[in-house]
């Protein structure tokens, strides 16, 4: 992704307001490598955000509210169908009837209905733009709030965006400007919802319908596997709802499959956050008509991290945690790119020529990460967890690291000719140096050539209104 001239290799355009996007263009082959070189081997997606226009002040608001829900649910066995099928399998294996009266089990637990919800969504966007012959501006604010369709009580995503794009012409031959965007996002959720085994979604389609979502029978709730034993950490590992009832534990299916509500209760309060700043500053000089010198410096700065608390839990004999832990992580990343170009365009009759010469430099993955985990805190929930407790050093785990910096330095030249914007010829040559190239071949020369034809501009092409 290249957003207003800034190369964004991670995160894409997720930080942008949709209403701030002016255009999206996909470049392939020689067109993409003309400016971005070897990094554009798979193509480039150019995103241009909106700019202010000379004239009066314009105020635009775009907002919506809605709901999200699963597109469809799988047609799974209910309790009667499940017990009937189990009986047939048992009889075929010579073991006799397992469930004497399948009809007595009724519908049982529909785990998909238990875990999926209709989730509220809202998005608000406000922009103000305007300008004169000397200066233009575009500024916007956005807020997105979206509940998750899985365990919506504890899953949510919200994002705040701010943008400022402006240009200023102190002289007829000089243009200055910037395109700056900032976004803050916070994500609260379950974590491994897509886990093949043990995640809430996998359990919702594989767990038997005989197990209750919540065990409300006092007799069963006080018997195995809910009764305090060393296996469930003397009852401390049994997950319970707000009314004190234990979440159901299957005695039909073992291994990693767990009650999705019980699993969700181990993730209460956990969240991730991120701050992203993406922008550039540019200056353009036009000393004579059609000759332009342009310098652009762009950057992406990201700070992100999260906090999570994992309590003591016993979800079944294969899924349990004997000691609680509280984790906090902080990461930062800094990417930048610099580009200087000289371009000249000339047209006469139906012939159009453009020559561009440039130099560029780019650095990415200047990252740093740090995380700390405290174990065996004297608390049992996220809200009470912190790193202010005095615990033994042997129960404190710390880690971190730095990313391997990647740098690129380039010079390039591009010649473009078209006749009536119908027949197009383009030639490019670049010399790229990369820190990822071998020690004996730090630089390489990459020429390319392309031909284009726009048949819709031919006389034989039918008019399209």
Write a brief caption for the model.
With 465 residues, this protein is mainly β.
What structural class do you assign from the helix and strand content? mainly beta
Could you report the average pLDDT, rounded to the nearest whole number? Answer: 89
What is the ordering of alpha helices and beta strands?
A: EEEHEEHHEEEEHHHEEEEEEEEEE
CATH homologous superfamily placement of the domain at 52-70 and 116-189 and 267-457: TonB-dependent receptor, beta-barrel domain
DSSP helical segment count: 6
Compute the CA-based radius of gyration: 30 Å
CATH architecture label name of the domain at 52-70 and 116-189 and 267-457: Beta Barrel
Strand element count: 19
- DSSP helix fraction: under 10%
Low-confidence stretches: none
Give the termini distance in whole angstroms. Answer: 34 Å
The shape, in one word, is elongated
Task: Name the descriptors.
single chain, 465 residues, mainly beta, Maltoporin, Chain A, 13-stranded antiparallel sheet, 6 helices, 19 strands, 9% helix, 49% strand
Written account of the structure:
The radius of gyration is 30 Å and the shape is elongated. The mean pLDDT is 89. The longest helix is centred in the N-terminal third of the chain and has 14 residues. The chain has six helices and 19 strands. Strands 5, 6, 7, 8, 9, 10, 11, 14, 15, 16, 17, 18 and 19 form a 13-stranded antiparallel beta sheet that branches. With 465 residues, the chain is mainly beta. The two termini are 34 Å apart. It has a domain of 284 residues: Maltoporin, Chain A (Beta Barrel), CATH 2.40.170.
